[in-house]
Specification:
Blueprint (H helix, E strand, L loop, with lengths): L12 E6 L5 H13 L4 E6 L5 H6 L9 E6 L3 E7 L2 H13 L2 H9 L2 H8 L1 H17 L21 E5 L3 H8 L1 H6 L6 H13 L4 E7 L3 H16 L4 E9 L6 H8 L5 H10 L5 H30 L5 E5 L7 H13 L3
Parallel strand pairs: 1-5, 1-6, 2-4, 2-5, 6-7, 7-8
Antiparallel strand pairs: 3-4
Helix pairs in contact: 1-14, 3-4, 3-6, 5-6, 6-9, 7-10, 11-13, 12-13
Length: 339
């Protein structure tokens, strides 16, 4: 998933999806930092209007404007954009028709919001279109009519999209089907076809974020099937918030069955000079049992993921909240796993 192979069949649009609560935005931001490491320039695009990227990096809310937000090791840089359908439509009208002022009038009267509400497929086309245009854009080109105009090397080595959740991702990305009932010809249809050509190319991969719990993993497996059925490319499965392993497998097996040597714990606690060693030992034994049972359940869920024939990367559960420093730690973990 290198961001630096600029013109081959390498992945340049990384679409990150996952069930709510799995840390999808955190993983997308970490992925952007990892891809930028070593001197790359990466665009991180948010499409859900939650300003999650701004909160993670501790910056002011992002506008509809590409701007640098973080440096990466080795001279890399991450830029970010909070895409929204209204601004994307105004940009679209300006590129194709030179109608930005007319579009602003439509916005004032609520026509743009009305149009994207009654035709949600149009909203998805506009949002995915912004990300795919950034993938195709090259230095020195003229963006006349929304078409590529040659130019030099790509402006961005990679684009990472913090996309909608797993349950909606196939519909969100399958813009051709969404637009079929809206426009069978003309600029809107041509725009959708251009977007879909990028999404279905080898340059795009959809990555799934999950945690080691039954429902998120099931949604991941189902989502992978839907993405493949739509003719799109599945990238990696990113397992987030993985608990550390504190004990060897035999100890875990005994603890899961309730066979913890409480006497040994008591002796160890007394040797350490702790008061009320018996009470503390019983509490530790109970915690060991709970940890072992969770580890056993997670092992079963991992076995389900073993059946998914895609690369799997794991990110640790962090002891504290996530901010810029923690994002860099997670990016390092991704790099260490061969990103």
């Amino acid at each position: 998933m290198s961001a630096r192979d600029r013109d081959g069949d390498t992945t340049r649009l990384h679409v990150v999806t996952g069930k709510g609560g799995t840390g999808k935005t955190t993983v997308a931001a970490s992925l952007a930092l990892a891809l930028a490491a070593g001197g790359g320039t990466v665009l991180l695009v948010e499409v859900e209007g939650r300003q999650g990227i701004a909160r993670l990096f501790g910056i002011r809310p992002l506008p509809y404007e590409e701007r640098p937000i973080a440096d990466a090791p080795g001279g890399g840089r991450v830029c970010a954009l909070a895409a929204d359908a209204e601004s994307a439509l105004l940009e679209y009208l300006e590129l194709f028709y030179g109608m930005r002022r007319a579009g602003q009038v439509l916005t004032r009267f609520g026509a743009v919001d009305f149009a994207t509400t009654i035709a949600p497929g149009m909203r998805d086309v506009l949002l995915t279109g912004k990300a795919t245009e950034a993938v195709r854009r090259r230095a020195g080109e003229r963006r006349r009519g929304g078409r590529d105009a040659g130019g030099g090397r790509p402006v961005y080595d990679a684009v990472v999209m913090d996309a909608p959740p797993t349950g909606r991702i196939a519909q969100f990305l399958n813009v051709n089907a969404e637009v079929a009932g809206l426009a069978r010809a003309g600029p809107v249809r041509n725009h959708a076809d251009t977007v879909m050509a990028t999404l279905r190319s080898a340059q795009t991969a959809v990555h799934f974020v999950t945690v080691l719990e039954e429902m998120p993993v099931q949604e991941t497996v189902d989502g992978i099937g839907e993405i493949r059925a739509a003719g799109l490319n599945v990238g990696s499965v990113l397992v987030n918030m993985v608990h550390p392993g504190f004990f060897d497998e035999p100890v875990l097996e005994d603890a899961a069955e309730g066979a913890v040597d409480t006497g040994a714990l008591v002796r160890g606690l007394k040797a350490a000079g702790l008061a009320d060693a018996e009470h503390t030992a019983r509490g530790l034994a109970a915690e060991m049992g709970g940890h072992a049972q969770r580890a056993r359940a997670e092992a079963g869920i991992r076995a389900r993921l073993d059946g998914v024939d895609r690369p799997r990367l794991e990110l640790p559960l962090l002891d504290r909240g996530v901010g810029p420093d923690e994002l860099r730690v997670l990016a390092e973990h991704l790099g260490e796993q061969g990103l």
